[in-house]
Structure formats: structure tokens, C-alpha cells
């Protein structure tokens, strides 16, 4: 969920869990303010209805963090690209959703493109692969449930996130001691400088908007489409680094970007064609 954060391994290793906790706490405060101002009306939900979503979110944070600690960046990125096909598999098996063959085939150039961008740094180890596999499975479940719960419970993105954010924050509070310091220097209850507080609050406001947009995108499109946005962002980040900051871009990376963009464009074309076909059927129906 927080893939917009820097993938720097050292930074993620140190503070990602308690930073995520703060971000979700700020997200809930933002939503509380929104409902107080009449932006949406909270819908009464039972905690048990939101519990799987909150648990899968915590698992997503923990296992992707462990994957990043135990694997190289290339291996981490390659594993992350497997989220899309796993989502297709989960929706097909558990929810009976059918995907046309041409949609499934668009995943081939996308996965190949990510591999070409990351293969130079791909190294496998048993522990790293275990964490990466668990991370992909839990992340895929979380993204599927973000969309499924909105439809199942008849709630919008704000109403669902309003319940999930505080529940996940409370769970992460109990998880933090196993991965990061709680008190003292660098701990969530340790000393904070004014500049650190300001930066965290600003990043929390951004996280609020990002979380809300993610829920909206998945709820109104699909988890697969949301992942396509993620792959597109990956390409734009590499191209932006090359064009704006003169970061070196190898031939393999260039080919990887082209492969990924080709898959994204093909997916977009097929989905738009599918929507037009569905509209035509509705118009022709007596």
C-alpha cells in the first residue's frame, strides 16, 4: 500500500512499521474530520466484518518489510510484480471471476519488463523467498478484499477506510516491538525533533490522500487495474530519474520499460474495448 515510499533498504528496515502506524492514524483523523464536515456518513459495521481486511493489511506491512530486509532490491521488485497474477488467480478461484485470455497475456510482457529491470540484482535465498511469497499472498488478499468488502458491505472507500484505519493502527502498535524500537532513539515513543514531527505529519497527509485514492481506484475499477497503475508508476519513476536527474539507464532497463509499457497499453486497450462492448449490449437489450 505504501509503495510510494522510497525503496531504500536501510530506511525501510528502520522505521517502516511505526511510520505506517502513524500514517494510518493520521488517515483515520483525516476521515474523522471529513465525516464531521459532512463529506460522508459513516455506516455501522461490525468489527468482525472489517477484521480480515485489517489483519491482511498488517500482514502485508510485516511480510513486505521482512522481504525487503532479506532480499536484494531486484528480488523484492520481481516478487512484487507477482502480485498481479496472484490477484487474478485468487479472484478466479475464490470469487469465480473470469478473465479473458488476452487480459492474462498482458501480464507476460509486464512481468518480463520488471525482470529485465531487476535481473542484475536478483539473488535467491530460502528465508528471503519465504518472506517474499508470504508478502505476495497477503498483499494480493488485501487488495482483493479492499474491493470485495466495499461491494459486499455496500460501503464506499471513505466508509470502509474509516473503520479499517484505526483497527490496523492498533494491531501495528502490538507488532512494532518485534521489529523496531519502541522507546529511546528512533523509537515511536522516543524523542522526536521538530523537523521530524513536521516531516512525518506532512507525509501522513500525503498518505491520507494516497490511501483514499487507492481504495477509490480498487473499489471503482479492480485490484488488477490498480496494479497496472503501480507498474506504470514504476516505469515513470525510472524514466523520470533518467531524464530529470541523469540517472544511468541500461539497454536492458530500457527494454524492460518498453515491455512493461506495452503490457499496460495492451491491458488498457482490452479493458476499454470490453467496456464499449458491454455498453453496446446494454443499448441493444430490449
Automatic annotation (TrEMBL):
UniProtKB keywords: Membrane, Transmembrane, Transmembrane helix
InterPro entries named in the record: Sugar_P_trans_dom, TPT_transporter
Signal peptide: none
Annotated localization: Membrane
Membrane topology, as annotated: Multi-pass membrane protein
Domain Sugar phosphate transporter: from-to ranges: 20-267
GO cellular component term of the entry, any: membrane
Top-rank lineage group of the source organism: Eukaryota
Keyword Nucleus: no
TM helices/strands, residue ranges: 16-38, 50-68, 74-94, 126-148, 160-179, 191-217
UniProt keyword annotation of Membrane present: yes
Matches recorded under Pfam families: TPT
Protein name: Solute carrier family 35 member E3
Amino acid at each position: 500500500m505504501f509503495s510510494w515510499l522510497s525503496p531504500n533498504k536501510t530506511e525501510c528496515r528502520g522505521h517502516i512499521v511505526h511510520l505506517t502506524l502513524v500514517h494510518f492514524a493520521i488517515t483515520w483523523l483525516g476521515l474523522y474530520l471529513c465525516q464531521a464536515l459532512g463529506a460522508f456518513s459513516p455506516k455501522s459495521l461490525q468489527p468482525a466484518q472489517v477484521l480480515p481486511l485489517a489483519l491482511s493489511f498488517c500482514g502485508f506491512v510485516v511480510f513486505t518489510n521482512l522481504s525487503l530486509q532479506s532480499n536484494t532490491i531486484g528480488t523484492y521488485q520481481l516478487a512484487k510484480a507477482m502480485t498481479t497474477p496472484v490477484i487474478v488467480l485468487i479472484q478466479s478461484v475464490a470469487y469465480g471471476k473470469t478473465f479473458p485470455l488476452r487480459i492474462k497475456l498482458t501480464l507476460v510482457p509486464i512481468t518480463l519488463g520488471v525482470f529485465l529491470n531487476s535481473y542484475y540484482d536478483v539473488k535467491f535465498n530460502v528465508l528471503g523467498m519465504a518472506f517474499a511469497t508470504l508478502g505476495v499472498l497477503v498483499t494480493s488478499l488485501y487488495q482483493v478484499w479492499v474491493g470485495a468488502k466495499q461491494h459486499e458491505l455496500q460501503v464506499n472507500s471513505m466508509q470502509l477506510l474509516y473503520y479499517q484505519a484505526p483497527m490496523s493502527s492498533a494491531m501495528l502498535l502490538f507488532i512494532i516491538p518485534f521489529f523496531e524500537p519502541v522507546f529511546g532513539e528512533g523509537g515511536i515513543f522516543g524523542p522526536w525533533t521538530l523537523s521530524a514531527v513536521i516531516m512525518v505529519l506532512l507525509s501522513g497527509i500525503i498518505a491520507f490522500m494516497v490511501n483514499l485514492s487507492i481504495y477509490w481506484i480498487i473499489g471503482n475499477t479492480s485490484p488488477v487495474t490498480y496494479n497496472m497503475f503501480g507498474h506504470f508508476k514504476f516505469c515513470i519513476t525510472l524514466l523520470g530519474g533518467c531524464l530529470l536527474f541523469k540517472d544511468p539507464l541500461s539497454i536492458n532497463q530500457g527494454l524492460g520499460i518498453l515491455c512493461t509499457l506495452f503490457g499496460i497499453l495492451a491491458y488498457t486497450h482490452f479493458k476499454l474495448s470490453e467496456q464499449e462492448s458491454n455498453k453496446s449490449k446494454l443499448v441493444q437489450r430490449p
